[in-house]
Amino acid sequence: MSIGEMLAATVPMVRTLNLEYLETTPERAVLSLPDQGEFHNHIGGPHAGAMFTLAESASGAIVLAAFGDQLSRAVPLAVSAEIAYKKVALGPVKATATLGRPIADVVAELDEGNRPEFPVTVAITREDGAVTGEMTVVWTLRPNS
Question: Taking CA atoms, which of 33, 38, 81, 136 is between 20 and 30 Å from 62?
Fold first, then answer.
């Protein structure tokens, strides 16, 4: 089972919004949010909350892809998130997430007994490629007690 399939099966908001996992690797995660009237805002595009959930879900997917081998000793947790809405989003949108620190550096910090934090940046785009939003989610790997 792929990370996308596992998250779709276990995260209710993923199913609610019908998010689709297009790519999930330690280098990049790409998710799409289809154009669905029940999640439109007052101008006919995806609601800000739906776009937030799309971007946060992409950040979580890359974290699991990058650090899934660490789950026996640490749990990934989102620490903070900041989003900027740049342009009107109409129609389906995609979120592309990338890690802001090398995986080896984060694992080395965990190996030292620390609780590493690392940013994940996410670009939200329309079908024409225009960036409609940008999000940064700071994640941590909290060591198991």
Answer: 38
Strand-pairing partners, residue 29, are 24, 97
Distance CA 62, CA 17 (A): 19
At 20, list the tokens: 């689709």
Residue 26 corresponds to which tokens in the numbers above? 């330690």
Burial 69-107 (b: 16+ CB within 10 A, else e): ebeeebebeeeebebeeeeebbeebbbbbebeeebeebb
Say if CB 6 and CB 15 are below 8 A apart. no
Q: pTM (2 decimals)?
A: 0.95
Question: Taking CA 98 as the corner, what is the angle to CA 112 and CA 22, rounded to the nearest 5 degrees?
Answer: 125
